[in-house]
Amino acid sequence: MSDAPFHPAPLRRRHLAAALAAAMLAATMGENSRAAADAAWPRLRDESGWPLFGKLAGLDRRPGPSPSPAAIRTVTNCDDDGPGSLRATIAAAGESDTIDLTRLQCGRITLETGAIPIELDNLTLTGIRADRTVIDGGGRDRVFIHYGLGTLTLQKLTVSGGYYRATGHDVAFGGCIAARSYLSLDHAAVSDCKAVGVGSYGGGTFSYALLMQNSLISGNLAAGRLDDATTAGFGGGGYAYFMQIFDSAISSNRADYQADPRFNSYGIGGGLMAIRGGGIYNSTIDSNFSQGRGGGVAAFSDLRLSNSTISGNQAQAEIGGGAFLRRPSTLQMDNSTIAFNRAGRDAGGVWLNAPGSYFRSSVVFGNALDAGGDDDLGENVGNQRNNYSTAVEQTIDGNHNLIGARGPLFTLPTDTLELDPLLEPLNLNGGPTRTHALSKESPAIDHGSNPNGLASDQRGANFPRVYGAAADIGAFERQGALPPREQVPVPTLSTWMTALLATLLGLGGMRHRRRAAGRR
Fold first, then answer.
1. Is the dihedral of CA 61, 66, 67, 72 positive or negative?
2. What domains lie within the chain, and their CATH numbers?
3. Residue 69: pLDDT band with limits 50, 70, 90
4. Does 443 sit behind a cis peptide bond, omega within 30 degrees of 0 on the bond before it?
5. SS3 content of the chain, % helix, strand, coil (to 5)
6. In angstroms, what CA-CA distances link 509 with 501, 504, 515?
7. Which pairing describes strands 163-165 and 323-325: parallel, antiparallel, or unpaired?
8. For the chain, what percent of residues have pLDDT higher than 70?
């Protein structure tokens, strides 16, 4: 292990205003620069227009190894540095290599000398399983910084314990992982990471594009902190310009700021923030917190939600407890459930501010405002105090929905049900992610549709999307009794062991009584 003193990886300084300008630029570019369809990644933009990514691009990259066929390189110990360590193995890797951590006898690598830099465009790290291969930042620095123009892929491992604290008016981004280009999580987890600065982008991950498959982002914090300044926390779990989320969970993340009445501060996207939007499929976003807007997810461009659940998130001070979509973003939602989220001021469930959204066979119900009352859908209602000056009438297209309380400017499909769907609490009802089961008396049963011809509900295989006369409304399809939930076994003794234990206890009691009698 190296005895060199720890120094955080250097990043060129940039004021929060530049970072905010980048976000606004991304939100206002024309249709020609929109991300490609769901199946394709968007192209990278000119670095001059992306100050945050310019921080990574501006670093002096060390010359990498000469090009060679992709190889599998094995990590042989859990040391921070030195031969066989993860750090040394990555430093020696070539383009598109795979770093194999499956042969480790230990389960955790704790970094002591700072983040591991990855200079290659494409690299894959593979562990045994997310709960058996952990790479821990030890609360000292980030875990990985990826400078390449390709994809960093993490498979079957957990990245945790990263902490990046920017100083002065620097912005912080990526508490555990900062990636200049694409980040792919495959059966992986990112947890318990923090990014802290006057502006903070991505408590867990920061990347141009984020792809998740069967993965988890949880327990991360993006915190805006600096005295006598405007502060901002964006994307508690992750911050990306484009995202595609499949069969995954975003849970218990937080985006907050240092409140000071003299300054306008921002907290947006407790779970995720995606400037160019993207898609969420067969996934759950729950129990996240934003001090400002978008408790669960925030998007500055169109968002697709399919066969998914957004539940139990909070936007404490402002709007969009479950989801916040900034104008001109739309929500395109199929077979999904948005329930039991909260907001401080408006739209406990979903905040929309532009026409063009559609809901099909979806539930938006049981969301609430801290000011009192239920509010499942909210819109721009001309609040001058918060720089909203015009009201926007919105017609939601679609069919077969169940929607509760909504703002006065919404027009819903004529077949919309306005009844209590009788949702069960969020739980593991089969499949990899938690869902709200429908009680057997729910009016959502057999009143939905399956517009995309899905084979299964959110839970995946063995849970057909259509069971009975028609699909149910929402992410969950009731199919008779609920599957048995995992039970923690209580150890029991066999009959003869019980008898033996009783005999030993009895003998012990007799000895105790005899000794006590002898002392009298």
1. negative
2. 77-411 (2.160.20)
3. low
4. no
5. 10, 35, 55
6. 12, 9, 10
7. unpaired
8. 73
